């Protein structure tokens, strides 16, 4: 019987070489072509700059939170944010404060310029610091009016630039125009003294007609109960109001505080009140700084006279 030939056995050395080549190729493949899944996981874990998941989204203008202003700040002159609706706070009354006799001293004026709310200063014409006082008042963002000197019944000297009942129409107009030109930028006038002039229909007609032509207001300080200003102002349809309270008939602290409370009561009863003090009252600036925040808290609103004043044509 013929014996079949067996295939030659592979030598062990060749087999080991073949296995080595295969292993080397596998390792090379792993190094040159890493798995996509593992690579992507690594990218996400390291956080590439251009990865959409890591970019900040812009704020949504419709849903982004908006800081809300304090409504109390709006009452003091702050403006609401666009689109913000601030609920109206009911006012117990409107208040305007006028400081008379400004112009003789800047030192007396400056503490009152620090008052945080609206306030109006009445400047005497033709005295030492009339123009300088006006400049500082306007720079402080406050309101100024002419404190027009007028003849008094008792014969006391009203000071420079006064209007007298013996003046004819031309003289009254000339004097008033001169004073207003000296203090350009005032919103109107009130009377300094003037019990004789404000009770004289002829002279007051001239004064108020001149103010109407200039679109200026008149505030009657009511130095006499016999004043005829209101009736003439109503007939001429000019902005007009009158004093409610003098704050400093005396310079005693307790009496000033009492007068201020009287002003609050009149504002609550009548809807508004004008309180007049004087620049030379040394207690006044400190007292006003004390009572202002409490009056706001109680629901009263402070305005400049021009914002408070009635247009009697309405």
UniProtKB/TrEMBL annotation:
Stored CDD domains: CE4_DAC2
BP GO terms, sorted: carbohydrate metabolic process
UniProt KW keywords: Membrane, Transmembrane, Transmembrane helix
Chain residue ranges for the region called Disordered: 39-65
Signal sequence interval, chain numbering: none
Provenance organism: Sediminispirochaeta smaragdinae (strain DSM 11293 / JCM 15392 / SEBR 4228) (Spirochaeta smaragdinae)
Gene3D superfamilies: Glycoside hydrolase/deacetylase
Keyword Metal-binding among UniProt keywords: no
Record protein name field: Divergent polysaccharide deacetylase family protein
PANTHER family associated with the record: DIVERGENT POLYSACCHARIDE DEACETYLASE SUPERFAMILY (PTHR30105:SF2), UNCHARACTERIZED YIBQ-RELATED (PTHR30105)
Biased amino acid composition, Basic and acidic residues: 40-51
Segments passing through the bilayer: 15-33
């Amino acid at each position: 019987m013929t014996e079949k030939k067996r295939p030659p056995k592979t030598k062990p050395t060749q087999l080991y070489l073949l296995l080595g080549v295969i292993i080397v190729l596998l390792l090379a493949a792993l190094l040159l072509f890493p798995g996509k899944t593992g690579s992507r996981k690594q990218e996400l874990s390291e956080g590439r700059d251009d990865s959409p998941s890591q970019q900040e989204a812009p704020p949504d203008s419709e849903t982004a939170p908006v800081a809300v202003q304090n409504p109390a700040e709006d009452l003091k002159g702050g403006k609401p944010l666009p689109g913000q609706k601030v609920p109206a706070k009911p006012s117990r009354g409107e208040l305007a404060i006028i400081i008379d006799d400004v112009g003789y001293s800047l030192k007396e004026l400056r503490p009152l310029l620090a008052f945080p709310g609206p306030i109006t200063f009445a400047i005497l014409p033709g005295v030492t610091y009339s123009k300088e006082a006006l400049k500082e008042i306007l720079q402080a963002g406050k309101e100024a009016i002419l404190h027009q000197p007028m003849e008094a019944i008792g014969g006391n000297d009203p000071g420079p630039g006064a209007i007298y009942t013996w003046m004819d129409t031309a003289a009254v107009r000339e004097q008033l125009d001169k004073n207003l030109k000296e203090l350009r930028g005032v919103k109107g006038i009130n009377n300094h003294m003037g019990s004789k002039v404000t009770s004289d229909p002829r002279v007051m007609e001239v004064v108020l007609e001149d103010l109407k032509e200039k679109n200026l207001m008149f505030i009657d300080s009511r130095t006499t109960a016999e004043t005829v200003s209101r009736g003439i102002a109503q007939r001429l349809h000019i902005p007009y109001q009158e004093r409610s309270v003098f704050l400093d008939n005396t310079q005693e602290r307790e009496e000033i505080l009492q007068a201020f409370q009287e002003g609050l009561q009149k504002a609550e009863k009548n809807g508004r009140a004008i309180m007049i003090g004087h620049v030379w009252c040394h207690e006044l600036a400190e007292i006003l700084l004390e009572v202002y925040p409490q009056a706001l808290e109680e629901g009263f609103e402070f305005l400049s006279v021009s914002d408070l004043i009635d247009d009697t044509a309405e």
